[in-house]
Amino acid sequence: MTPTLVRQHRSHAECVPRVDLCARARDWSEIQERMLVPLYEAVYERLEVGPATRLLGLRCGSGLALLMAASRGATVTGVDSCRERLALARERLLPDAPRGGCRGRGTRARATAKLLDGAPGDAADAETAGYTLVTVFEPVGCLAGDSEGLAEQLAAALPPARRGAAVVLAGWGPPERCATSSVLRAARKPADPLPGGHGWRPARRDDLEEVAQRAGLKPDGSGRVACPFGYADVDSAVRGLLSTGLFDTAMAATDAKQVDKELTEALHPHRRQDGTVWMPNVFRYLIARVP
């Protein structure tokens, strides 16, 4: 988790040093993205997502949350600035679309979907309008500054949404209930001396409410969901966590091998006797309304 599970939305050259972007996108799609499925399911169940739903997914990544909404009958539109992840979303949601970008092995499904390559504000220019639900499932609240600009992006994307439409924001839960927090904190140590780096910080109770308030939204409920991170082995855990982009600052400050070493050591307490890695986490979501 991102991004991330939170991706910092900067240029690829700045944000992703010395990595294979397609491989990282596949790791996100095949390893890490599924960790948030309980969050998606809880939100869709609570909001009764179905054939009457017109969903706009901002920072939609490789499209798993969109696919789950489409399987309920919703009409979905996704927007993301990461072309590598978006290419995998097209394979999932638009199986007849021309091939390009990263090739993945995700499940393909026919769906009523539209995918846009760009910033969240680009959704305001999409032909599909009258959104009844807007989601930002990319969790915030574990890096200093990881919600910067989100309120402005939301405000730019919301004009096509109907009055009273639900807007869902997601965030990390309290660090004492998120085993992954200790891994994020330990593995980011190489970046601590870097001036201006977005260092780890514990999630705050009002992180999501502050974003909603800045975007001009009215909070209308919240919830918590258990989202354990489970991996087949340490290597899968390292690949999955690196795919979030949370360790890019550390990689820029040192190198990939050092970050891999720190991350592997931080994961050791969470390794079980059979070699699998298991980290219980709780994520929080906020439901707000378009005035």
Quick synopsis:
Helix 2 packs across helix 9, helix 3 packs parallel to helix 4 (64-71) and helix 9 packs across helix 11. The strands form two sheets. A seven-stranded mixed sheet has the order 3-2-1-4-5-9-6. The chain has a two-stranded antiparallel ribbon with strand order 7-8. It has helices spanning 12-15, 21-32, 37-46, 64-71, 83-93, 150-157, 180-187, 207-214, 234-242, 248-253, 256-267; strands at residues 54-58, 75-80, 113-117, 131-140, 161-172, 218-226, 229-231, 277-279, 282-289.
Low-pLDDT windows of residues: 1-16
- Radius of gyration, whole Å: 18 Å
Query: Strand-residue fraction?
Result: 15-25%
Assign a percent range to the helix content: 25-40%
Strand order of the largest sheet: 3-2-1-4-5-9-6
Mean pLDDT: 84
What distance lies between the first and last C-alpha atoms, to the nearest angstrom?
31 Å
The arrangement of helices and strands along the chain is HHHEHEHEEHEHHEEHHHEE
Shape summary: globular
Number of strands: 9
Note down, in words, how this protein is organized:
The chain is of the alpha/beta class. The chain contains eleven helices and nine strands. It has helices at about 10-15, 20-30, 35-45, 65-70, 85-95, 150-155, 180-185, 205-215, 235-240, 250-255, 255-265; strands spanning about 55-60, 75-80, 115, 130-140, 160-170, 220-225, 230, 275-280, 280-290. Strands 3-2-1-4-5-9-6 form a seven-stranded mixed sheet. Strand 4, helix 6 and strand 5 form a beta-alpha-beta unit. The radius of gyration is 18 Å and the shape is globular. It starts with 11 loop residues before the first helix and ends with a strand. Residues about 1-15 have low confidence and may be disordered.
